[in-house]
Every structure is written in structure tokens, then in C-alpha cells.
Amino acid sequence: YLVGVGRADCTGPVAQVPLMGYANPEQVGRGLLSRLYSRAFIVAEAEGPARVAFVSADIGMVSQRVRLEVLKQLQSKYGDLYRQDNVILSGTHTHSGPGGYFQYFLFWITSKGLIKPALNSIVNGIVKSIDIAHENMKKGRIFINRGTVENSQINRSPFSYLENPESERKRYSSNTDKEMVVLKMVDEDGHELGLISWFAVHPVSMKNSNHLVNSDNVGYASYLFEQQKNKGMLPGEGSFVAAFASSNLGDVSPNTRGPFCANTGESCDNPQSSCPIGGAAMCMAEGPGNDMFESTRIIGQNIYLKAKELYDKASQEVTGPLRSAHQWVNMSDVSVELNATHTVKTCKPALGHSFAAGTIDGVGAFNFTQGSVEGDPFWDNIRDQLLGEPSNETKACHKPKPILFNTGEMSWPRPWHPDIVDVQIAAIGSLAILAVPGEFTTMSGRRLREAVKSEFDSHGTRGMNVVIAGLCNVYTHYITTYEEYQVQRYEAASTIYGPHTLSAYIQLYRGLAKAIALNATQELPRGPEPPFFNIMDITLLPSLSADKAPAAKTFGDVLEEVSHKYREGEVAEVTFVGANPRNSAENATEHNFLTVERYSNITSSWRVVLNDASWDTRFYWSKGSGGQSNVTIEWHIPAGTEPGAYRLRYFGHYKKRVLLRLVTIPFEGSSSAFQIT
């Protein structure tokens, strides 16, 4: 093969933009814990024309809008080299990245519309990572390995899982998939290029009370792996690229202590995830750490250590042709043949009452609980008044789901949910990557993998390694099994195309696998193309205005100084006169907000030892009144930090009114020097 890897920043605006994942409008960005990256891997046949590009980006999910814009840019740069069939775009599913990059209206409600700077950062970051991988193609080899990750996940809907047939459950030792699949990429001289890991866990170690943009547990694993391989480089720099990609994580939580009532401390591991006092809103899962930052590191470190072990021992080489298959499907109208006599259909999209209950990882609002198979007359009445009553056909199709939002029948001011969905498989030799458009639960993923493997087997392509890549291409919420759907916990209420969604996908992915096995991908019907809405920048974000500094101060001045001395384990902290960080995102795609610098006596100069991509630094923005704001920079000094003189620096942009327009002006500030002893 020819192999190329690339990494590019896709962070976007870190202030005022709602974070995407928990659907909590209060959770808006107020700073940065770690940068977000797009990581691209391209594999091409050394002698033939075939190639496959896999991208894992540190975002909540890939939206249809992002995918269509990326493909458009790739088409104009590379012609027919990168297409909808051979490019997979997957989101890691961090819940701490900026939202606002969707074209369907439901997602506008919690992310304040379509936010162009957020959308553009993601699209440009993905394209740039592919550009870098494309330019760095070299002869290489790929190895695969798999192993078990312990102590890093629980099933957050165990009562749903128990609805699956006992005979099926008996075949598995756990109610989550503990297997990690790792690809190791090296060039022909054995120099290391990169790694892709697929492992099923929700990146929700950071809670919905967090306001710092970051890539959560899987992003921390990427950071550890890349820091280890790119020795001596700053975070985000260096040629080795390590992606920790999502899989069938639908019902999988990293909050391994399980659910407890926040007010009383008792367990609320019950079918409704509800507490005696305070109901479902009090039932929250806890991670292994003392706080969410520590939990993120513990889970991330576990994942990293297993990946490192599997990577170091990987010896099974991946060889064989590259093939890819893709179709667009109208998922609101698929006929599924369950058997010779029985055909069922998918439904127009709709969300059930338990969607509003949220999960033990991020609870919902009002008095909604998980496992609602009856509607609530109060909320149904409000829905009918505001949004219109669902049709009898849609109600019947979704049974036993009581419909809260009949999104498939709502098109004002534009459609609320997608109908046209991508299904896609890319095969690299004996590895088949199933790019799925949402969050498959543990058992749904097992059924899909098994069906695709047996399809390959029955057409003579034996022994395929089948892996699910989650959150790809377009977001369609969850996919539960038919049995899990019957009890309507959060994941089932969010299975938007109805009870037979999984059966429809199994039928579709079997069709793709068969086409690949028989070398007949050219004969697959393309399907109906998704719409590309002509949207102006419609957003409820406050518009950027002139920044102001307090009297007798200027931007970058220190308001609260560092101490003179710190030890390992302490936090160095400085507060500056700040400006809106959105000014910087609009000005440069890869703006660095801070550095930690160490004084070198040898060269008599300051040397940068950390940037804002480091997990040891935190950048907080707090908005005051009258255009004033403060920035606080923290450095959580890790064990093993070299003693010496250090300082913290801040880099920002302020907006100033000149005549009738706003101009953006860069500035910087620095703390005093301090000693680490």
C-alpha cells in the first residue's frame, strides 16, 4: 500500500457557542482545555487506482452539512480521487466541542442556529488533514491487532439490554463490547506513521456542567499516544497521528461507578433511572475519578495503555485489494424483509418522550423519565398546540414509542431531521469498516457486524475483520434492537426511524458487503441525493462588538498575578484583561491562546514548553459588562516538571471601532516569572 497520515486543528470558536452533545442550551463555551483535531488516514493501492480515506475528528458527530461541504472541496481539489464512496468521516463523539454545524432544524434549537465559524473550522480542518495525508503518501504496511479493555465502560441502559433474547445474551460475557481493534501503520523502512483504534465508549467523562472545549477521554488517549511518539514536540505537532475513533457506543458510558442520586447518594440503577426524591433529574452516573477532569484522564489513560500494548504487539499484516461501497437511502421509507412471509417498514423520523429524559450521563429537563411507553397528556397537549399533532400513520408506525417531536412531519422553517442517509463500507484488504450514521447500541452493533461478516463469508470472502465506525456522514441519533426499542429508554426513544431501524440497516449493509465481495459495487444504485440547503448565517449568537479594557488598563495587562513559587501538583494561575476569544477564531484557524515558557540560562531566553493544546493548561474566559472581560490561565503543574523559572503568556485579539467599522487587533500579555521548586 501507499499510506499517508495527517492531523489538523478543527477547534473553532471556544466562547459563547453552545457545546454539542448534551443538548443543554446553558452549556456554552467559556474557554479551552484541549484543542480539537481532525486526523486523516489515506491508504492507496501501490499499483492500482483504488484508495480509501478514513477521518476521525474530535467533534460530536459528522453532520450531513459537514460531509457535503468536505466532499465539495475535495472534488474541486482532487477531481474524482476522493468521493462519497471512499471517504469516511467519523466523529469521536466528544460532548465538549462547539455545535452549530447542522442544516436540520432540530439541532438549531439547542445550538443557536447555524454558526458559520464553527462549521468552517470543522470543514477546513478535515480537508486540511486530508491534504496533509495526501501530500505525505509513502510506501507502507498496515498491521491489525485486537484485545480487551477493562474497567473503562458500563452499559447505561442495562434493563434495555436484558430485553434481548437470553440465548443471544448467553453468547457474550458482557453487556458492553470490551474489544478494541487497532491498526498500526508504518512505512517500508519500519518508521512509525500512525494508529487508528476503534473502541465503544461514550466520551462523556466531562459532564454537562463543563464549559471548556475539549476532546474528552478518547482525545486524551490520542494526546498521550502522540506525545509519546512525537518526543520533544509540542502537543498537536509532530508527524505521528493517533486516532481513537468511535464505534457502537450507543448504550456505553465511561462513568464506571454507575448511577447515584445526587441528593441522597443512593443507587438509582432502576428501569426508570429515577430517584425517590427529585425523580430522574437527580439520577447521575459517576466516573472513576474525584472530579470530571480526573475521570477523563483515568478512562483516557486506560484506553491509551491498551492501544499501546496492542500496537506494540501487532504482527498480523493487512493485505489485499481496497474496495468501497456507498448508497444514499431514504430511511423514512425502507421495506425490510424479516423472512419469506413478513415485510415491515421504517418510519418518518420522530423522537419519543424519553428522549427528553436524557441519560444518566446527562439528565434531561422537567419531569420526563426514561422508559416512557405512555405519552403525557400535559406535554402532548403543548406539543399539539406548538408543533402540531403527529399523524395516525406515524403514531402507529413508531409504536410503542409515544411521540414527543414528530420531526419527520415538521418542515418549518426547514426540515427538522434528515430522511436521506448514507450507508457505506470501506474494505482495506481483510478489514471492513462499516461507516454508520449514528449510535448503535452494543447488541445492535453485534448483530450488524455478524450479519456483514456472514454475508462476506457466503460470497467467498472469508475471515473478514468487521469493525463499526460510529457517528459517520450524517447524524440520525440512536439505533437500538427491536427488543430494546420495546421498553423505550433514552436510546430507544431516540431511534428515530422506528422499531425496525436496525433490521433496515442490516439489510442495507448486507447489500453493500455482497456488492464488495462480488466486485459489483458499480451496479449499486446511488440512491436519492441529500439536500444541500441554501442557508445564510442564521444564529442567535450575540454579534461581536468592540471590546473594552478597564480604566487605566490595556488588553493583556495582568489583573491578578502568579505567586513567586510553586511545587509539583500545585496550580499556577494568572488573570489578564481579556477580549472575546471568538475574535481570534474568526482571524486564524489555528490560534494559540497561551504558552507556558521556561527560562533557559544557557541561551538567556524563554523557551515554549507547553501550548493551549496541553491537557495541563486551562484557558478560562469570563465576560463582564460593557464589553469588558477577563481571561484566567491555569497551569496544573504535573509531577516530573523540571525546576526553574517559568512564565505564562496570553495571546488574544480585541475588536476596536475605527470610524464606522470594527477592526481586529492582536495583543499579548505575560505573567511575572515564577519558580518551580
TrEMBL record:
One of the record's GO cellular component terms: plasma membrane
Catalytic residues (UniProt): 253 (nucleophile)
Co-factor: note: Binds 1 zinc ion per subunit.
Residue span, Neutral/alkaline non-lysosomal ceramidase N-terminal domain: 1-507
Enzyme Commission number(s) from the entry: 3.5.1.23
GO MF: metal ion binding; N-acylsphingosine amidohydrolase activity
Catalytic reactions on record: an N-acylsphing-4-enine + H2O = sphing-4-enine + a fatty acid
Pfam annotation, one family: Ceramidse_alk_C
Binding annotation for Zn(2+): 93, 202, 439, 478
Top-level taxon of the source organism: Eukaryota
Neutral/alkaline non-lysosomal ceramidase C-terminal domain location: 510-676
GO biological process: ceramide catabolic process; long-chain fatty acid biosynthetic process; sphingosine biosynthetic process
Cofactors (names): Zn(2+)
Keyword annotations: Hydrolase, Lipid metabolism, Metal-binding, Sphingolipid metabolism, Zinc
Root EC class: hydrolase
Gene3D superfamilies named among the record's database cross-references: Neutral/alkaline non-lysosomal ceramidase, C-terminal domain
InterPro entries: Ceramidase_alk (IPR006823), NCDase_C_sf (IPR038445), NEUT/ALK_ceramidase_C (IPR031331), NEUT/ALK_ceramidase_N (IPR031329)
Protein family: Belongs to the neutral ceramidase family.
Record protein name field: Neutral ceramidase
Gene that encodes it: Asah2
